[in-house]
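Sample log: Ribonuclease R.
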Amino acid sequence: MPDTLPTGMPQARAGGLPDREQLRAFIENATGRIGKREISREFGLGPEHKQALRQMLREMALDGMLAPAGARRFRVSDRLPESMVVQVTGTDSDGDPIARPVQWDGDGSAPVIFMHPELRGRAALAPGERVVARLRRVGPGRYEGRTLRRLTDAPMEVVGLFRTLDETDPMASAPARYRPAGTLTPADRRAKAQWVIPVGEDADSPDNEIVIATPLPQSGPGLHPARIIERLGPQGDARTISMIAVAMLGIPHVFPTEALAQARAARGVTAQGRTDLRDMPLVTIDGADARDFDDAVYAEPDGEGFRITVAIADVAWYVRPGSALDREAHLRGNSVYFPDRVIPMLPEDLSNGWCSLRPGEDRGCIFVNMDVAADGAISNARFGRGIMRSAARLTYEQVQAARDGAPDATVAALPDGLLDSLFGAWRCLSTARAQRGTLDLDLPERQVRLNDHGQIAAIQPRIRLDSHRLVEEFMIAANVAAARCLEGRHLPCLYRIHAPPTPERLESLRRTLDTMGLKLPPVGSLRAADLDHILQQVRDTDQAGLVNELILRAQNQAEYSPEPVGHFGLSLAAYAHFTSPIRRYADLLTHRALLVATGLEPGPAPSHDELEEAGLAITRTERRAAQAERETLERYAATWLQARVGTVMDAHISSLSRFGIFTVLDATGTSALLPMSALPEDQWHHDEKTQTLHARDTTMVFRPGQALRVRIEEACAIRGTVLLALPDTPPSHRRRRT
């Protein structure tokens, strides 16, 4: 920590609160992560400045000038922290390792990290290895890194596609003693290393098998030998695809024996000490393929408004702090959802059993009763521990059909007016949402449908219905009530926070929108409603899809923290996850805190520091799950497109760069690259100001949002990448076996 402000920084008056630019400059130039203690020491602040400083830091986080750096510390939002987890992706021309951040949510490509060689006597860093590195910025998008700690003692693993040698492979002509059994193509698209599997190290794997391998001692420059230690399945089997992400990202998927035993020993609850809700016709509303039902809803008219009840499975009754179940749930952080399977946070004896609100069966629950006024205002929220019996397991499609006048037998058997009351309460809550001015992105979500043989039957959009929005608004209301309850009792709360976009991202968004004739207000006054106003302007136009994508990319990722930063997208000052404790550990922590707050269980509630640590951990697992789900969808799409190489499809441009055009395929909703080499021969110029790519000698111009007809040129299933060409260009002679 420097004793004085670095040269060139504006000086604050001793003992006075710095302004925002002075504070940002200090945090940016100081060494390490900076918190209120370091700021107070630097600027000579006393106890009388504590509240004002806290408010300034909160506002700067809301404005995107700062980003949380853990343990009540901050960093400037567009810089990597002083140390972080990085993954080695290959080597430079001198043989030194190159790495990338494991977690990256910034604009554009992740920064490149040039790692220093390891100390004498230590093994060199191998491609794919993860380490905690100390970083030093050496230029835009470039850092130097030094290893602080290797993360595992176990051998590093490489997930990839094993191919036996054929006559076209250059290594097939090598002398027999140097000829490997085959090659390994890493599934990680960032990996640059080439792996070979020596004879006798292939675990009898057949050609075209997805495998996990562990490195062997390097036998020569540029060669990375490895031993196959596990076979995941043939590449052609769609059910193998999700296991690639599970293996690559280290997602725990086998429960310890002790945790399974605790789940099997669980039993149902009794009414003793609980509010009896079994006569209340609570219903669950979920997807048709859902197997666990952790939330149920009910509403009844109350004057001009409604009285609503949201009941959530009482997971805290079964998963006690410090138990084997609790340790495993904390490790996993959340469930992970794939087209062919779910990697659950809790064993199925709980997630699909005692913690699932099955119809007609007694279940323990944590509930909240709320009064909703005609304008959507929520009051008189009361939490309790209950016993309930779901009146029906409904699907979104059932509820929507009933609202549209076609109820089935299950819905018709419900009490008269129940669905009318649910939709009436939803309309009230939607009124309040509109008045707040929230960001309501309309991004088509794609789902992969498999047939009975595990083959891809279709990739199609997931339809969003009013019944989805109904459940969403009820859950948001319950989550807000949970945060307010804990705040009202002055107890720490693990908030779901969403900071506003950074000034840098907003400026990039503004430049792009300007080229489309769309205007944003100044950064300092921007609200979620302003971005939503842009969305309303382009609704039902050809620009709608692109503008939604652009605004999404400008957003910060939501995270968990005990600091009340607020939720920008929902325009809420306090928001906590409470409604899905079967699949999110954050919700389980909120349940435990509420039980203490309402006197239903003895204390103490989790401390601020405990929630800080937990928030960082489960934010990481949530992003790991999102990455796994996204990459798996891309691999499914590439697998589906492999059989359609040469087919011409519709796409639209999502962004432009100096090396190609990024598009989104309309059929699959996935990204694909039209490389510069696939464009007609000409001199192409990328104009960042106008966000266009144009040719010098022709009138051909490409711009974001533009519709294209493209030909599928290559699809690499193992990496989930797709290369395109224009329909009137000759097919490439390149050939990829992957």
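Observation: The chain is about 30% helix and 25% strand.
Observation: The chain has a mean pLDDT of 87.
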